[in-house]
Amino acid sequence: MRYHNDRPVSYYTFASFDAHPGLKHAVLTRRGGVSPAPWDSLNLGWTVGDPQENIEANYELWSQAFGLKRADLTTTWQVHGKHIILTDAENRNGSLGKADGLVTKTAGIPLVQRFADCTPIFLYDPVRHACGIAHAGWQGTVNRCAEAAVQAMQRHFGSEPADLLGGIGPAIGPCCYEVGLEVADAIRQTQTDPDRLLRPGPRPASFYLDLWEANAVQLRDAGVRQIEVAELCTSCHRDTFFSHRGDKGKSGRFGAFIVLESR
After folding, report:
1. How far apart are CA 86 and CA 60, in angstroms?
2. Structural domains in the chain?
């Protein structure tokens, strides 16, 4: 990914997505907001204890930094599942309900999700000018949310998976994401070649899980061939990103968005 500090808030973009005009996207960092510790400073999570006025100020700050209208931001109540919501001129703005992803073919709708170790998943169809974003922690990975996002693009827009660009954003890495036997068993039961995704952990019946590769494999299983993986661990880079695991549960949420522009 490419790091940028040319706006009041710092952010990352995928080089493969940057090559396409008519598309704006970013993974935000935790920097540039007004929230105090332990949510310092660009916290976008509504349910972590940060006063609501701080969160709203942060939304205003970053949306203005990208030339977006706060009222246009469209998101979901993330529940660690695989439901993906279609947004269009009739179904947009604010939270659209319980889901872990959004897709659209309508210009001017910023699709927003929030993260603090879970995996940001970006999709763009340059042929049909459609896009999507999804959120997958271990439960979303077990539920195959990344694959569901591709299927939503196929169902709603007629996207060909081979045309899609995929992006796997910053998330807790295989260096830090220690899980127990229950999670490992769920991964073994639901993922392609699960032994590649798990390696022995430091304690009995513990494992390190590779969420980056698990979600990239799901995209490949769904037919996506062009996938850019950030390989940025949120727990290792707590100065840049919020990390629920690394911050021992007292953390904010950083944002990610994608929006189509007219072309």
Report:
1. 24
2. 2-171+226-260 (3.60.140.10)
